[in-house]
Design goal:
- With 545 residues, the chain is of the alpha/beta class.
- It is built from 20 helices and 19 strands.
- It has helices spanning 2-15, 19-24, 59-75, 118-130, 134-138, 178-190, 215-218, 246-258, 274-279, 309-325, 341-344, 347-355, 363-377, 411-420, 430-433, 456-461, 492-498, 501-510, 518-525, 528-534; strands at residues 34-43, 49-51, 80-82, 89-93, 102-107, 110-115, 150-158, 164-170, 195-199, 201-202, 205-206, 222-223, 240-241, 262-266, 330-332, 386-390, 403-407, 425-427, 476-483.
- It is globular and about 75 Å long.
- It starts with a helix and ends in an 11-residue tail after the last helix.
- The protein binds acetamide (ACM).
- The site of acetamide has 4 residues, from loops.
């Protein structure tokens, strides 16, 4: 009865041109590009057929099988796969659609989906799950509602605004481990996020096995304090650390790819590099001194010696192993917060400064990246990668470099500068997209980095690429939320601070700006509280009634 009322309301509102309010009743996050509510509903029954077209690697069939397995887990309904013929669910290839786009038509007679690629079908099924009770999104078994397991009639034409919809997790400061990463990937995939930026190295810990440099994980993955000293806080002397073996990495890459998420590894160089220097002091500007995995928060001045041939070779070797492990065509090489003081005092760096005619010591960083770029470009095409760096790199000589800029500090201005220089940009503005910062003024809220207070509304209301001129717009390839972990002690901090703000960023990445309103989001996100509760997630409850 309640459902019928909701749908009549949806119909009435869409008839009045108030479609955003009407679609709120459908609780879809991110909101699709176009939604028209229909009348009636499709009812799932055992043994219904799913007709999936052939595709290289059988990948569309795999998408269908995954959906069928999820549906069975949460409802008990068993579907059958078929290659052709009539079916309750029929998938059709439509090469005209964009790579992640889909069309979804649900009526009492069945579910029809078209897409050009497996990703589009995957997103259509994610939408189907959100059209059902939230135990389906949660993957939790529940008793069938009175009218059976149904999907409301609807017609959706959908495609994302941006190709890059990301989330970054800092595992240098806090090591979460495989299960948490998979959990994050699951949440991302429900919200149709498609890039997991894995910040794997920091002053405080190196988290990825590199075969050629075993000390990175033997030494660099471990520190002598669980908490990081800051202002009044002192190191606690507890040994702390961990890392991913190359087998772990392969497992997680495969897990992400099943969810249409590509992983972008970050090796932060030449700053935020102290854990590597603890393992290999010869890569520093002071090889004779002792270097330790850092026990503090902040910006360390102990950075890589970018003028040292050994350090350049190290970077190339690490990149070579990353290329083997990560099939996606981007590698992030950091570049943020790198003080140049150590270079200014080092004879090798001084000589390089003169040799390349540098204007500032920051140019040494551009020179270093240029060598890495040349290294990548010299590889067979299939192994070439694009490099990404944080926006500080704009202060260096980057002329002609194939670098994508991740804009975080003064993000909008930095992005304009980068795009003006012909570089692609990803918007991850510190304020409000650093979702490790607090999300309310509630004094019981976990401590976050800095004194921020980025409410879900503030996060939602950021308008990516607002006012950017049409010539520069093609360089804006996407948006990303970042999560830094200086203060994280318990993994629950992550869930709590991520939810529901990650959904707000996902919607900025997916939904056309003109369709986005916070009021509509606030109504649609309410349904997700049930999912979070069913799974026992910690989350910011402030906007849930
Ligand atoms: C950064 O927040 N240091 C990229």
């Amino acid at each position: 009865m309640r459902k019928i009322l909701v749908f009549s309301l949806a119909l009435l509102l869409s008839a009045c041109g108030l479609q955003a309010a009407g679609t709120a009743a459908l609780s879809l996050v991110p909101l699709p590009a176009s939604v028209e509510a229909g009348s009636g509903e499709f009812v799932w029954k055992n043994k219904q057929k799913v007709v999936c077209p052939g595709y290289p690697g059988d990948s569309i069939r795999k998408v269908c099988e995954r959906f069928a397995a999820d549906l069975q887990q949460s409802t008990g309904v068993e579907l059958r796969m078929a290659k052709k013929g009539r079916g309750a669910v029929v998938l059709t290839l439509d090469a005209e659609l964009a790579p992640e786009a889909y069309r979804l038509d649900v009526s009492k007679d069945g579910i029809r989906i078209s897409a050009a690629r497996p990703a589009g079908f995957f997103y259509a099924f994610q939408t189907v799950k959100q059209l059902m009770p939230r135990n389906v999104v949660a993957g939790k078994r529940a008793d069938a509602p009175a009218g059976g397991w149904t999907v409301p009639a609807v017609s959706i034409v959908d495609e994302p605004r941006f190709g890059w919809r990301g989330f970054m997790l800092d595992e240098g400061r806090h090591f979460f481990g495989k299960e948490t990463v998979k959990h994050v990937l699951d949440i991302m995939s429900t919200y149709k996020l498609n890039r997991f930026h894995w910040h794997l190295t920091e002053d405080q810990g190196w988290r990825i096995e590199v075969k050629k440099y075993p000390r990175l994980t033997e030494v660099g993955a471990w520190r002598n304090s669980r908490i990081l000293a800051w202002k009044g806080t002192q190191p606690d002397g507890q040994r702390y650390g961990g890392f991913y073996t190359q087998d772990d990495i392969r497992e997680i890459v495969a897990y992400a790819r099943e969810r249409f998420i590509e992983i972008v590894p970050e090796i932060d160089m030449p700053g935020h590099f102290q854990a590597a220097l603890a393992a290999y002091p010869e890569l520093s500007c002071t090889p004779d001194q002792k270097h330790e995995v850092w026990l503090r928060q902040g910006v360390s001045g102990d950075v890589m010696n970018v003028a040292s041939p050994k350090a350049v070779q190290f970077a190339k070797d690490v990149i070579d192993e990353l290329i083997e492990l990560f099939p996606f065509n981007y590698i992030h090489i950091g570049g943020d917060e790198c003080p140049t003081r150590a270079w200014e005092q080092n004879a090798e760096c001084q000589a390089l400064y003169a040799e390349i005619g540098a204007k500032t010591y920051r140019d040494l960083q551009g020179h270093f990246y240029r060598q890495l770029e040349q290294h990548i470009q010299s590889k067979p095409v299939a192994e070439q990668r694009h490099l990404i760096a944080w926006n500080e790199i704009l202060g260096s000589n980057t002329d002609g470099l194939d670098l994508t800029v991740m804009a975080w500090v003064g993000a909008d201005k930095a992005a304009q500068t980068a795009a003006g220089r012909g570089m692609d940009v990803i918007l991850s503005p510190q304020i409000p997209y650093y979702i490790n910062r607090k999300q309310s003024k509630d004094p019981s809220e976990p401590l976050s980095q800095g004194y921020g207070n980025e409410t879900v509304e503030a996060v939602y209301n950021y308008k990516p690429a607002n006012g950017v001129s049409p010539e520069l717009l093609p360089h804006y390839i996407g948006v990303q939320a970042n999560f830094w972990t200086e203060y994280v002690i318990e993994p629950e901090f992550l869930e709590y601070l991520m939810l529901p703000r990650l959904a707000a960023v996902a919607e900025a990445g997916w939904t056309p700006q003109e369709r986005r309103t916070y009021d509509s989001f606030k109504q649609r996100i309410q349904a997700d509280a049930e999912w979070y509760e069913l799974c026992g997630f910690d989350y910011g409850k402030h906007i849930f009634k």
